[in-house]
Amino acid sequence: MARDACAFRPRRAAALLAGLLVLGLGSTQARTVRIIQADRLELNKVDGQDIVVISGLRVELRVDNDVVIASRVEFNRSRRTLTLIGQGRYDAVDANGAVQRLSGSDLVVNLGNQAVSGEDVIISDAELEIRGEVVERVPGQLTAQNSYFTPCAKCGRTPDDYAFKATRLLLYPGDRLIGYQATLLLAGVPVLYLPVVALPLNEPSRQPRLSYTNDAVDGRTFKADLPFAAGDNVLGTTFLRYYQNRDPSFGGGGEFTVYAPLPGLDRINVYGLAEPKPADASGNFTSGYDIDFSFAAKGQVPLDNTAPGGLVYSVAAVRRAIGVPDTDPNKGLTRIDAAADVTLTNVRDFNNVKVNVTVADQLGPEPTTALSTPLRKPEVTIDPDPYLVTYRSGSTLSADFKVTAGNYEAQSNPLSRAASLQGPNYATARLQEEHAITYTARPWKNADFTATNTFSGRYYLSGQRVVDLNVGASLTQTFGVRTLSGDYTPIYNAYGTPLNLPASAGSFTVKYNYLRREGVSPFAFDRIDSRLLSAPLGAALNLTPGSGVAVRLSQDYDLILPADQQQPADLSVNVSQEPLQLNLDVKHDFFEGELESVTANGSFGAQAARGLNFSFSGSYSRQSGPAPFTAAVKAIGGVRTNTFGVSLTQDLVKRELQSVTVSASAVATRDAVINPVTLSLSETLNLQTPRLDGSVNVNWRNYAFASTHSLTLPKGSLQNGYTNDTLYFSVGNVAGSYLQGGAAPLPGSAASPSSLTWNLKYGGPYDLANTEWTRPALTAALTAARPAQRLSAQATLALPGSQQQDAPYLQSASLSGDWQFGRRVALSGLASYTRTPPLGPNLPLTETLNLQPLAFNFTFGHEDKPDASLTATFQQTLTWVNGVRTDTTPLQPVLLLTVDRCCWAFQAEINPLAKRFRIGLVVPGAGNLSAFENTAGVSSFPIFNTNK
Q1: How far is residue 239's CA from residue 798's CA, in Å, rounded to a whole number?
Q2: By the number of CB atoms within 10 A of the CB, which of 50, 446, 935, 945 ranks highest?
Q3: In the prediction, which pLDDT does 138 show?
Q4: SS3 per-residue string spanning 326-395
Q5: Is the peptide bond before 159 cis (omega within 30 degrees of 0)?
Q6: What was the pLDDT predicted at 171?
Q7: Is the dihedral of CA 27, 28, 30, 35 positive or negative?
Q8: Which sign, positive or negative, has the C-alpha torsion 796, 799, 804, 806?
Q9: Are the C-beta atoms of 371 and 425 separated by less than 8 Å?
Q10: What is the DSSP letter of 63?
Q11: What was the pLDDT predicted at 15?
Q12: Percent of the chain beyond pLDDT 90?
């Protein structure tokens, strides 16, 4: 019987489809499917098979992390398959986020074993593109018939630099690609027939690695990590180890990952390595092995009456001994962690109930020190959904419960005498119950009543307990409720702010709470550090007499605490209505007749328009007395960027002025285009610890003048002959300004016009008592640029000062430039000098000169995307210590050839004076490899070295 097609509702359809998938998978692993975009959902039954049809201009589904895109998708509940009718796309996303894309006609996705099949399919990932007439994909393996594959498809060149045609192809993602009866194509031309061709696609962690060393302790050492793949779902690595002087000499192990070996099991990871024991601190060897081991498994088991995904579980065990000192208490310890989660659905009264089981244990000798994390052997948590009841009167009752039970071993609580006597760790069972119950109602008009009960109780088999209880109720009565009609028009004040009346004139609230926290836990991880017994009864009055005005008065009285520990009454007033901004908070203790605290701040006057603005801020507390009071006035000109302000801070305790701050900013309004002038300054005078800090910035046209200072008054500050006071002046132009009469850009060039940027800065540490700089310096910087050309120079000159008698001398300097000739040729150069003067007696004077006087670069190939470049440079570093040259390396020419073809790259470096020759390669799956190096006749192959 066929069902009528129904209109598509995204939320309903997504939930329905997810449910259908889970029910249709039976004992096979369930996969979560979400509808991201679609227009129509149809439920049909054809030949006894349930079919769900999802269609639209663009249908997008998410199968776990994978993405399905088509115009029509048919889900066969009986066969548990998704069929993409017509052209479609399936993006498979692995755990690392890498995407493998399959595009083709009539793709079929098997939700049970995650297989994909189709005809005339294109497969592409970050490195490869594969085209096949018939393609089948299962986790860990892809098979294609009569295929064409190449790493060059994404480079944008036609034809591809190199490619292969194969009768049959096997792809193991992240490991290797194997083609049978293959033909090598260079630039589209067949040049070689190969019965079998293999391309490594390994991630860096799965590349073959070899290492050979020879040292005085272990003698000759050989290590090999050899990746392998077995079948269509097993990836692994074999470890081989040889140590000449250890007993025994040979070691080894392996690791492997198995994908979906059984229904309900997603993955298994196993690792094991046995290495001969190393020498101790005295160089003596001990016979035997150190063993590392780890095991991890995770999966999902679909169950009836559970949420999508069913039972989700994971198990892990880790043991570490290699490289761990014998004195480490964790050596040889096996840590076990396991977790299982399931959500039971359609449970009476609670809808869903979450169940979690956690195991955290360790095997080995008993711990002699405090455990850093508690052991759970095991722990079970039951967490039902909140229970909610709505009565006819509109009142509601909600209850949320959670129960946790387990057997624990953890660090002893030092506050528990019984636990401390047992040693650094304590073991016992614990039951924890938590709940939150809330009842809300409206007993009469404009009244709201709420009652709550939150509780957490932990009960231990040792007889101890810890409870945390909070029971409370509150009643709020709103009065003066205003009902505004739909055509209500607000009244505006003189500043244009609407005077909207608040929804009510105010409210009155009375509340009561009973809080109790007591008990001593035997465990340190869940202990409470303070007890609590409190029963506060409180009342609060909220008034909203007008727009932007709020007043609140509140008082709490604890029925248990004595009078000297009661909370003060709190009065707060907030006004936010132009031209007035005011915030006032007053706390007064009526039980002791003391003013507890006062905090106030506000402003009056213009905010964003021309005029004056007055502002203030201050506070008082019973413990520390009055805080400094700040008052400020700011004048705002006709242009809002023109401001002048004065701020005074008064120390009310010492009854003296603490600081004065003057600030100003201005922009010239006359001839603002031809002759613009901007000014900003800030100056702060601290009167208690006399100090003057400030800055001045003036911009005129494209020129900028600036000054900063930080000075201790009246005569500065000298400690151990050094001062922290500073004074700087600088002048320059704004970056990007034009050269007077500068050259125009080259024809067809999009480069910016020629520009000249310069800056001079003088200053440094300043001795105010003698009105002189102690270690002044003059820094000059100049950058000239025009299309395809740039020249930069910078120099810092140390000038004579009271602590710099040997000046003047050059502290640092640099000169660099580059020149681009068309799109093929470029020249560049760089030279930099630094001098590090001795900062103490008997310390050396060090000078360094780095030279790269000329670098020549020439590119080949397409102008928009060059294929190769040839670079010739000269490099040298000169070093002097106390005037004596210490380096012996001469100026070295270096020739560098780079060939970049997108899907492969080659680099060769030649340094004739250093007698160094290096070859580097970039190949798919291996990244940037230094394949061969020869220095002074000594050759090496870093590509095979694992000691990195």
Answers
A1: 61
A2: 50
A3: 65
A4: CCCCCCCCEEEEEEEEEEEEEECCCEEEEEEEEEEEEECCCCCCCCCCCEEEEEEEEEECCEEEECCCCC
A5: yes
A6: 77
A7: negative
A8: positive
A9: yes
A10: E
A11: 39
A12: 38
**Which has the higher per-residue pLDDT, 120 or 563?**
563
pLDDT above 50 (res 397): yes
- Rounded Cα–Cα distance for residues 941 and 929 (Å): 10
* Residue among 263, 355, 339 nearest 302 (CA): 263
Mean confidence (pLDDT) of the chain: 83
Distances (CA, A) of 614 to 208, 437, 574, 611, 785: 74, 51, 17, 10, 49
| Structure tokens belonging to residue 615 | 């502002």
Distance, CA of 220 to chain centre: 44
Residue-wise pLDDT tens digits, 441-474:
999 999 999 999 999 999 999 999 999 999 999 9
The pLDDT tens digits of the residues spanning 200-210 come to 666 556 667 77
Helix, strand, coil percent content, the chain, rounded in steps of 5: 5, 65, 35
Query: What's 443's DSSP letter?
Result: -
Task: For residue 579, say if its preceding peptide bond is cis, omega within 30 degrees of 0.
Answer: yes
The whole-angstrom separation of Cα 539 and Cα 554 is 6
| Single-letter code of the amino acid located at 724 | N
Render 736-787 in DSSP notation, one character per residue.
TPBPTTPPPPPTT--PPPPEEEEEEEEEEEEETTTTEESS-EEEEEEEEEET
Asked whether residue 501 carries a pLDDT value surpassing 80, the answer given is no
pLDDT at 944 (0 to 100): 57
Q: d(Cα 888, Cα 876) in Å, to the nearest integer?
A: 10
Using a cut of 0.85, tell me whether the model's pTM lies above it.
no
Burial of 779-789, coded b for 16+ CB within 10 Å and e otherwise, reads bbbbbbbbbbb
334: amino acid identity, one letter: T
Helix (H) / strand (E) containing 651? strand 643-651
DSSP state of 722: B
In the 8-state DSSP scheme, what is residue 801? B
b/e map of 337-358 (b: 16 or more CB within 10 Å)?
Answer: bbbbbbbbbeeeebeeeebbbb
d(CA 443, CA 446): 9
Two tokens, residue 850: 């780095």
Residue 75 confidence class, pLDDT cut points 50, 70, 90: confident
Q: Which one-letter DSSP state was computed for residue 412?
A: B
Q: Cis link prior to 378 (omega < 30° from 0)?
A: yes
User: What's the CA gap between 834 and 848, in Å, rounded?
Assistant: 5
